[in-house]
Amino acid sequence: MTELRNRLANLFAKLGGELFGSLSGLEERRILPKAARWLKLSLLGLFVALVSSLSLEAKEDVIMCYKPAPPPLIELSKLSVRPNPTKGADSVTVKATARISEHFRGESTISSARMRMGGDTIYYPMRAIDGKFDAASERIVGRLYVGNIEPETTYICIEVENSSGQTEIESLELVITEPD
Predict the structure, then answer these.
(1) Model confidence, pTM
(2) Which tops the pLDDT comparison, 122 or 126?
C-alpha cells in the first residue's frame, strides 16, 4: 500500500509540473492569459494538496509506545522568596514545602534541603521550620545574602533530599532591584 501511494504521489508531482509549465507557456504567449493563470493556480493547488496528502500517508505506520513517567518521589510546593523584588534589601528569605509523594509514603522521609543562587556552585543550607528533618512532609526555610549582587533577574535553585538519597530540584525567579 505504501509503495502504491509513493508511485501516485510521484505521478501527480510529474503531472502537476508538466501542467504548470504548459499553462505558464500559454500565459506568457498571451493565449487566454487570465484563464491560463486561473487554471494554473487552481490546478497547482489541487496537485500540491494531492501530492502532500499522499506523501504524508506514504510513510509507514509506526506504533509509538510511551512509558508513563514515574511520579516524582519528592514534591516541592509553596515556593516563595521575600522580598521579591528586593528593593535594595541585602538578604531574602526563601520558603518551600517538601513532601514525599503519596506513592512513596512510609518508605522515606525528607532528610535535608539546600539552595543556591543563579549559576553559583555554592549551596547554602535550609532548615526545617519545626527544627529537624524527620517527617514525610517538611516546611523549609533559608536566608540568602544578595547585597553584593548588581540589579538583575536571577533564580534560586532549591534542592531537597530524602533519606534514600534521591533529590528533587525546583527553581524560582528573584528580581534584585535598587532601593526605591
Answers:
(1) 0.59
(2) 126
